[in-house]
Amino acid sequence: MDYKTHINPDQLPKHIAIIMDGNGRWAKKQGLLRVAGHKKGSKAVRKIVEACAEIGIKHLTVYAFSTENWNRPKLEVQTLMKLLVSSLRKEIKTLQDNNICLKAIGCINNLPEKAQTELKEVIVKTANNTHMTLTLALSYGAREELIQAVKTIATKAKHEQLEINQITEETVNQHLYTESLPDVDLMIRTSGEQRISNFLLWQMAYAEFYFTPILWPDFDKNDLFEAIYTYQKRERRFGKTSEQL
């Protein structure tokens, strides 16, 4: 089924978040080293980014590297960081051709200096692009993000820069890494796992979850369109009844 033809362009999710899971398992199935899965997975990222730009998705956030991923074998982490640098260099043309602005969230200072430099360069070069925002979650953990937000808000309250009764949801939003992004409408996770793994906990409060057994390197445009099509078939009530909508 060609799901793209069945998507309603007036009901697109404003913000899609993706947990790109299954690179290692894909490589194992092929009898290859895990790094081969990560390389194949980076090609899938390009296809999905282009597909989102193609149909008019305004915000896409991908979970590229979590705070917990630092605990993986040292060689795999080094390989992932090298792959990040090379991918940024290769994909600058894709971003520019599709008018995509690149952003990054997480503890970016924990990345190797070379990766930080390359990332900042691409962010600067694409800063004025307006068709879509692609956000890379790198060295990212939602609990760490919330802790930092609470510390900053508490410090402001301590120094009387903020009244306690002035703290609202918007206050918290303004102190998160994602302050310039809307809440997530659709979260996609590949590989059959059904958990959110410390990803955008606050921002996904009312997101629709879509889990697929497809391993990330095999996830293609039609699979993305199927996820969006399924999303559009759901009734999003935000606490209300069907009759109130």
Overview of this protein structure:
This protein is of the alpha/beta class. The protein is built from 7 helices and 6 strands, in the order E-H-H-E-H-E-H-E-H-H-E-E-H. The longest helix has 24 residues, at 74-97. The radius of gyration is 19 Å and the shape is globular.
Q: Give a count of the beta strands, DSSP E runs of length 2 or more.
A: 6
Main sheet strand line-up: 3-4-2-1-5-6
Helix content class? 40-55%
Let me know the average pLDDT.
Answer: 95
- Assembly category: single chain
**Low-confidence region ranges:** none
Number of helices: 7
C-alpha geometry = globular
Distance between the termini: 30 Å
Gyration radius (Cα, Å) is 19 Å
The major sheet is characterized as: 6 strands, parallel
SSE string, helices as H and strands as E:
EHHEHEHEHHEEH
- How much beta, percentage-wise? 5-15%
Structural class: alpha/beta
What brief labels describe this structure?
single chain, 245 residues, alpha/beta, 6-stranded parallel sheet, 7 helices, 15% strand
Please give a quick description of this structure.
The chain is α/β, with parallel strands linked by helices. It has helices at residues 23-29, 34-55, 74-97, 113-125, 142-158, 169-174, 221-232, and strands at 15-19, 59-66, 100-105, 132-140, 186-189, 208-211.
